[in-house]
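ok, trying the design again with the full structure, not the truncated one.
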């Protein structure tokens, strides 16, 4: 990903008009949050180094228990997801990569597109990493350095560390999102639900009590079947819900959907956790109290019983839970809402 800005610290951080900062973030001079990017930084737990960039529709989630620290002149490609991890200087993070809690990526690393860096993984500096889960296939070489030099405008020097604190002005509940009619159907939202104002809901959609619809979420009920979302559900940043014709999409109570997921015309049982970047396809069924792992792909018409641990692409059941999964650390803590957004 090319990001040919000068290495010197100087220009103020650039936050594009459709990017969203939730909470207080430390952004380095010359850094960029591109269109559709969402940063959730609880109590100032995210720092982006000088000259680094988070490109379109990426999501970064940082909490005091799992902060995110990014070095200088590193670039995250489109639709990347970073949750509670650290990344060094001069890294190239391929489009749609996932870096999960506790992972550490060293300086000068290259991640191929769609790479998953599993929770707690340590990637040494200079490594080239690919796969789901990611594996180090080799050390960077002279050709990699020449490519990086071209992507950084012929200059691989690092600016002095320098930051500005950016406090988000985003709202939750101010307009209850953007609601659009489709033909004769208008979304129905329980008055106790909270929709971030950049969420967009279209058509035959019903949203239950105390549910949270995160920043940048798109829920599209423009088909011949309904979208029904239960109580106390969380659908988090930049997730998309849709369905094929003559189908329905049902999320039961207490489901948590991680950032950047794609949920399409399926049934997901009560208390299930779907981790960031997962895809659940039409006519599939995920039983209650299940756990869909990060980046998993649940194919059309697959069925999983209650309490299933589901992983892989295509997804398979890899374990069974005796109790519903705990609410993950990247979920939204209702107590934090007032500190990361302006409520209505």
């Amino acid at each position: 990903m090319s990001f040919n800005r000068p290495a010197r610290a100087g220009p103020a951080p650039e936050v594009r008009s459709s990017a969203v900062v939730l909470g207080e973030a430390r952004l380095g001079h010359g850094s960029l949050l591109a269109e559709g990017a969402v940063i959730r930084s609880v109590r100032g737990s995210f720092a982006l180094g000088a000259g680094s960039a988070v490109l379109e529709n990426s999501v970064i989630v940082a909490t005091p228990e799992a902060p995110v620290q990014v070095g200088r002149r590193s670039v995250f490609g489109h639709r990347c997801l970073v949750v509670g991890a650290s990344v060094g200087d001069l890294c190239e993070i391929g489009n749609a990569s996932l870096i999960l809690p506790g992972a550490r990526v060293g300086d000068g690393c290259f991640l191929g597109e769609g790479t998953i860096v599993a929770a707690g993984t340590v990637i040494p500096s200079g490594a080239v990493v690919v796969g789901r889960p990611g594996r180090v296939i080799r050390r960077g070489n002279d050709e990699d350095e020449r490519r990086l030099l071209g992507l950084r405008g012929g200059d691989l020097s690092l600016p002095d560390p320098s930051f500005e604190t950016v406090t988000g002005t985003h709202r939750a509940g101010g307009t209850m999102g953007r609601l659009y009619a489709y033909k004769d159907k208008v979304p129905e939202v329980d008055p106790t639900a909270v929709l971030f104002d950049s969420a967009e809901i279209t058509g035959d959609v019903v949203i239950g009590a105390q549910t949270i619809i995160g920043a940048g979420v798109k829920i599209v009920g423009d088909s011949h079947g309904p979208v029904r979302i239960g109580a106390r559900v969380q659908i988090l940043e930049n997730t998309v819900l849709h369905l094929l014709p003559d189908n329905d999409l049902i999320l039961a109570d207490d489901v948590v959907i991680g950032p950047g997921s794609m949920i399409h015309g399926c049934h997901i049982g009560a208390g299930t956790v779907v981790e960031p970047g997962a895809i659940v396809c039409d006519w599939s069924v995920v039983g209650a109290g299940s756990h869909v792992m990060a980046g998993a792909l649940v194919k059309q018409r697959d069925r999983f019983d209650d309490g299933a641990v589901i992983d892989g692409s295509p997804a398979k059941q890899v374990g069974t839970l005796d109790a519903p999964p705990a609410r993950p650390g990247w979920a939204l803590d209702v107590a934090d809402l007032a500190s990361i957004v302006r409520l209505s």
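Keeping the full-length input from now on. The chain has a mean pLDDT of 93.
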